[in-house]
Design brief:
The chain is built from eight helices and nine strands. By secondary structure, it is of the alpha+beta class. The protein has four domains: 2-63, no CATH class; 70-191, Tetrahydropterin Synthase, Chain A, CATH 3.30.479; 206-282; 286-303 and 317-345, no CATH class. The longest helix has 93 residues, at 193-285.
Length: 354
C-alpha cells in the first residue's frame, strides 16, 4: 500500500509539472478543451501575459500568441520586405497609370479575440498575417488609392488623406477578426518606366524653367542696382547744376541790385542837379538875376588863385570889362525862357608890346 501511494504521488507530481504553461510579457495563452470531459468541448480560456498557469495535458490544448505590434512590410526591395521577392502594391489611377508603392501596415492581435483567431484563422502570428492581414490590406489599399489621379498623388495633403482613409477601412475590415490596425505608412512610389521618364522630363523642364526664372530675377536685381547707381549719379549732377544755377542767379541778382542802386543814385543826383539848375534858371529869369550871377562868379573867383606875373612890357587889362563879359555869358537865358541878353562887345586891346 505504501508503494502504491508513493507511485500515485509521483504520477500526480509529474502530471502537475507537465501541466505548467507559462506566458511572457508580450503574449497571451489560449487553453482549448478537447474532449469535453470536465467541460464542454471547444471551450476556450485566454490567459494574461507574464504568468505561469496549470493546464491539464491531453484533455486541453495550449497555444500562445504574441500581442506585440507587428509590421506587415510590402516592399519592392526583397531585403526590406517580408518576402524574398518584390512585394510592393500596384494600383491603377483614375487616369490609367500604374503606380507601385511600398507600404507598411502596423497591426497587433486583440487579446480578447485570441481564441477566435486560433480557431478560425491560424495557430501562429505568421499564419494570421498571411491568411488575413496581408490579403485584406492589399485589397483595401488598391480600392482606396484607385480613386485619385497621378497628379493628385503628388499632392501631400491628398496622399495623406488617402492613407488615413485606407487605415480607417482596414480597421473596419479586420477588427471583427480581432486584428487591431495602429498605423499605415505609404513610403516609396514608382510609376511605369515610360510614364516615369515623362515625369522626369517634365520635372527637368520645370527645374530648367525655375533656373531661368531665378536667373532673370537675379539679372533684374542687378540691372535695378545699376539703374539706381546711375540714377544717383544723375541726381548728383542735377543737384550740382541746380546749385551752380542758384549761385549764378544769386550773383546776378546781387549784381542787378547793385547796379539798380547805383542807377537810382545817379538818377537821384541828376534829378537833384537838374532841380538845382532849374531853380538857378528861374532865379536868373527874375529880378536880381544879374546880381546873383555876379555873386556866383565872385564865389568861383574866390576859390581860384590868380597870379599876375609882371613883364618888361605889361599891357593894361581892364578887369571890370572882363567881369562884365563873363557875367553877360552866365546870364544868358536857357532856351525856352526869356530872350537872350545882348552879347557884350569885347573891349579893344592894345597890341602886345614885346
Amino acid at each position: 500500500m505504501r508503494r502504491l501511494a508513493a507511485a500515485a504521488l509521483a504520477a500526480l507530481a509529474s502530471a502537475s509539472l507537465v501541466g505548467c504553461r507559462p506566458t511572457n510579457s508580450t503574449e497571451v495563452g489560449v487553453r482549448t478543451s478537447l474532449f469535453g470531459i470536465l467541460e464542454k468541448r471547444g471551450v476556450q480560456e485566454v490567459y494574461a501575459p507574464g504568468g505561469v498557469y496549470m493546464v491539464l495535458p491531453v484533455v486541453n490544448s495550449w497555444t500562445t500568441l504574441s500581442v506585440a505590434q507587428q509590421n506587415l512590410l510590402m516592399n519592392a526591395n526583397p531585403a526590406e520586405g517580408d518576402r524574398p521577392i518584390p512585394d510592393d502594391i500596384t494600383f491603377k489611377t483614375k487616369d490609367g497609370n500604374n503606380v507601385h508603392i511600398d507600404v507598411n501596415v502596423m497591426w497587433r492581435i486583440d487579446s480578447k479575440k485570441a481564441g477566435f483567431l486560433i480557431t478560425s484563422v491560424g495557430q501562429t502570428v505568421e499564419e494570421i498575417r498571411e491568411r488575413i492581414v496581408r490579403p485584406v490590406s492589399r485589397s483595401v489599399i488598391r480600392d482606396i488609392f484607385n480613386e485619385i489621379t497621378s497628379e493628385e498623388y503628388y499632392q501631400v495633403a491628398i496622399k495623406n488623406a488617402m492613407a488615413e482613409k485606407t487605415r480607417t477601412a482596414l480597421v473596419a475590415s479586420l477588427s471583427p477578426y480581432g486584428i487591431l490596425i495602429d498605423s499605415l505608412q505609404v513610403q516609396q512610389h514608382r510609376f511605369d518606366p515610360a510614364y516615369q521618364a515623362a515625369i522626369n522630363a517634365q520635372k527637368q523642364a520645370e527645374a530648367d524653367q525655375q533656373k531661368l526664372v531665378e536667373q532673370q530675377k537675379s539679372m533684374e536685381v542687378q540691372k535695378r542696382s545699376e539703374l539706381e547707381g546711375r540714377r544717383a549719379g544723375w541726381n548728383k549732377l542735377l543737384e550740382d547744376a541746380r546749385g551752380e544755377a542758384g549761385r549764378l542767379r544769386n550773383e546776378a541778382d546781387g549784381y542787378f541790385q547793385t547796379k539798380t542802386n547805383q542807377a537810382r543814385a545817379v538818377v537821384a543826383v541828376a534829378q537833384a542837379e537838374a532841380e538845382g539848375i532849374r531853380k538857378e534858371a528861374e532865379a536868373l529869369g527874375k529880378m536880381g538875376g544879374d546880381a546873383y550871377v555876379k555873386m556866383q562868379v565872385a564865389r568861383q573867383f574866390a576859390q581860384k588863385k590868380i597870379l599876375i606875373v609882371p613883364g618888361s612890357n605889361v599891357s593894361t587889362m581892364n578887369v571890370n570889362e572882363m567881369v562884365d563879359f563873363l557875367v553877360g555869358r552866365a546870364a544868358r537865358p536857357v532856351p525856352g525862357n526869356a530872350a537872350p541878353a545882348p552879347e557884350l562887345a569885347p573891349a579893344p586891346q592894345e597890341p602886345e608890346k614885346r
